[in-house]
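Why run this: before we spend reagent on co-expression, it is cheaper to look at a predicted model of the complex and decide which construct boundaries make sense. The entries below are exactly what would go into the expression plan.
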Amino acid sequence: MARLDKPKTGQWELVICLAAPLLLILVISLSGWYFSRRMQRDVRDRTEVLKQIPAMEQQVREIRRMIATFVVADGATDKAAELALTVGRATKKSGFVIQSSTVDKQPGGEADLWMDYRVAIRGEGTLKTVIGVTDSLELSEHRFRTIQLNWKLKQLAPELIGDVDCTLMVRTLRNKPAPGGNVVTPAQLAERAATLTVLSQSVSAWIDAKQAPLDLKSFDDRNPFVEAEASKGEVDQSLSFRLTGIVHEINRPMIMTDKGVYGVGDEVDGFTVEAISNDAVTVIGRSGIRQIVNLYRGGGGP
Amino acid sequence: MALYQLNLAAGQVITVDRRKLWLRYLGIYLAIAILVMGVMVYWFTGAMVSLSEQKKTLDWDEALFVKAHPGTASMKDCLNQSANEVANLTAMLESIQTFQNNGQRSASLLLGLGGSLPPGMEVGDVSVSGPEGRLSVVVYMAASQRLDDGKALPSVISQWEKNPLLAGRVTHLTSENSEHRAFGGRDLLSWRFSGILEKGK
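The model came back. Tokens follow.
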């Protein structure tokens, strides 16, 4: 007798009928979610890049403007002559007697991205004139920085004058072409931009700081080592000459008077010239009294 | 004649009524599923179409952007170029910062040291040296005006510490020694002070 087949109950068909729509819904929703998320991310990233790059370019332009004075233009000659002129102007403006100044190029650093100039200044002057020179250089567009400074007192009267040996540095930057080949993501670019922002804020605080020249009034009339009687009055009664000019020769400064031209050690109408400063001369009379004669600027008196 | 009907599947299959009920439920279930699928397909298609339109606009904007940036073939190039530019500029700024930290602003330092001394005292020698910013200052005063060291020294140091030009700039300020010396035909007292300068000030 043939064995009867197990009757079909249709259970599996039923399961498939019930599960298939659910599975289909699941597949559609998952794939739809996945693709839309992917597209959204792509669109968001690209939109971000489109906003990020112009903002970055703006930031780069601002930073470049900020550091423009440090950057040596491509093909430009070196800045040594320009720096020497700046030093000359600063010393002249401050009345500092310069004996020598040298500007040396230092070896470049970090793939020639920057190069330093070493400026050595030697001369003599009062502390006020040294402050004037360094202030003028430090506030100049080149932003000199002092590396080493020596001011050593060598003369008490008529002013406190010292020998100066000062080394300053100036940094120049070179415009190197940006290296190619690095593939970055927008996130990496944002990270680099954040670092750049922090750094530029720190540097701009120094570069953009509006600093007025220092007020040097506190240095006027401060020499406690000049005799009180010698510092009084423009011209002593007993003096019979007028100081009309001072010639700042490095080795031999001279004074011009209405009686002639004299140097240190010369005698003018019974007074010996002891020291010559920027705008005054100290003379010693036969009695040993020391007097300061200031430049004659017209008016009464001898 | 009697008619007999034999239902051999009785007990093994569901009844007609139950089958009708099942079919009704299945129909409702399938209809809801189809509706849900339709809604989802509609929603996702709409989203995709919207995104696709945004992409088209982006493509257009990017094409214009790339055109405005000679030397770049794609946005990827622009991105890389920007990143390299930023890296270059970062190196430049770091170099300026190092330069700033390695040097001193000596004018304000000298003014602070010389301009705030008590009357009768003057800065004689000043020296700033070394990468660590060693400061050495000699202060002179006429021996005839001699003050009690115990009062004069703290007075000098406190004047310097109070000076805004030196505040937070000079550390480890100490008195090294004092000596009596003849200078320029005068009898002077000198005090030597030393300190360390803060970097980058």
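Residues 16-67 of chain B form the longest helix (52 residues). Chain B has four helices and four strands. Bring this page to Monday's planning discussion.
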